[in-house]
Amino acid sequence: MKAALKYPVFYLAPAKHMVYVFWREENVTTRRLLAEADGWAGQEVVDASGRCYTIRCCWETGPVGLYGRIGPTDRRTVRYDTDFEEAVRDCMLPKLQAWIAREYPRSEWFRETCWHNAADFRQAVFRCRSFEELARMFRCRPEEEPSIRRSLVRFLVVPLVVGVVIWLLARYT
Predict the structure, then answer these.
(1) Could you give the CA distance from residue 103 to residue 110 in angstroms, rounded to a whole number?
(2) For the chain, how far is it from start to end, CA to CA, in angstroms?
(3) Cys-Cys link to 106, which of 17, 36, 89, 110 (CB 3.0-4.6 A)?
(4) Average pLDDT of 115-123?
């Protein structure tokens, strides 16, 4: 079954005690990850409307860009499509918060994300009042993410504007 997910979407990986957050459809991965995960079969996906879907399987639909066509076969970048089970359940925010508060502190990334103890993390999780607020704990919106292009434009535009202003002042005074 194809599903129209409302973003942000939470991918729950109980085997790794992880939660992955996506703010838009990002169906790009490597062949190796897709094969290792066995198409992410059985993982649950919770969208921002509180609907819980179970992944039936994911399969490769084609290469992405130049890196999808050259290089070692297992590391090639590919697009994939996802098929969900027919049964869709409701997953209210408190249930998702409880799962995250229980599982994520056991993941290998818990300390890497600068949480010092599980109690502080649990308080922060249960303070969230919406799916969007909870999603921001794990990943900011794409427009808020650091961008080399945006930083380069800021780095070049500000001195350019200041230079033009100084040049105009020098010319007309």
Answers:
(1) 10
(2) 71
(3) 17
(4) 85
